[in-house]
Amino acid sequence: MGEIKSTLEIALEKAEKLGKASKEELRAQELRERGQRLAARYLSPEEEVDLATEMARLSSEERLPVVRGMVEVLLRNVVLPRDEFALQEAQKALKGLETVFAAFPEVKNLTQEIERLLKQYLQHRESLYQQLKQQFEAQLSGVEEALSSQMGVRVKVDAELQPQFQEEWRKIRDQLDPEYQRQLDYLKGIFERALSG
Fold first, then answer.
1. Which of 129, 134, 126, 33 is nearest to 83 (CA)?
2. Fewer CB within 10 Å: C terminus or N terminus of the chain?
3. Contacts of 169 (CB under 8 A, 6+ apart)
4. DSSP H or E run through 130
5. From CA 185, how far away is CA 181, in angstroms rounded?
């Protein structure tokens, strides 16, 4: 049976391997990190970065490791959105992927498919949330009336702040999210496989 290693042992092994890394491996790692920083700057709302221009400046030797780093960061930012702002961030990452893979026109179809999935998820999520909210508000209307007549003042009970509402919403998300996440992971995996080949 295999030996179970602690996190410290794994970290020490990685550190030891880094000490043994060849100059080429260190250079590739440095370039990959450069690509990661470039993609992070592109995604930052404070900076204006033209990925096409930055990629044009790369030598043929630098291109693949820098692109790998960029793609890692861009894909990491394509996530199931919680709101419109998160959707816009994911859309920017998808535009970045289109730029990186500009030589492959079929990539546009893939990014559009991912964007459709993200929008569908957000709409589905919002629809379920509103349905749950309406259901709880209907249940709480009787409580509000009873409290209002008892206190002599109009009382409003916020359904979204109720622990039962939060628990039900968590259960719904626990069913909804994995379904969409599987589809998203599959589509993102196509980019990863393209770079590993």
1. 126
2. N
3. 129, 132
4. helix 106-151
5. 6
Render pLDDT for 117-130 as a digit per residue (tens, 0 to 9).
999 999 999 999 99
- SS3 label, residue 48: coil
Question: Per-residue pLDDT tens for 82-102?
Answer: 999 999 999 999 999 999 999
Cα separation, 81 vs 112, in Å, equals 16
Q: How far is CA 12 from CA 17, 27, 169, in A?
A: 9, 21, 42
Q: Are 121 and 180 in contact (CB under 8 A)?
A: yes
pTM exceeds 0.90, yes or no: no
Question: 169, 125 in Cβ contact below 8 A?
Answer: no
Give 6's pLDDT tier (boundaries 50, 70, 90). low
141: its two tokens: 């209307």
- The two tokens of residue 48 are 């204006």
Using only C-alpha atoms, the chain has a radius of gyration, in whole angstroms, of: 24
CA 124/CA 81 separation, integer angstroms: 11
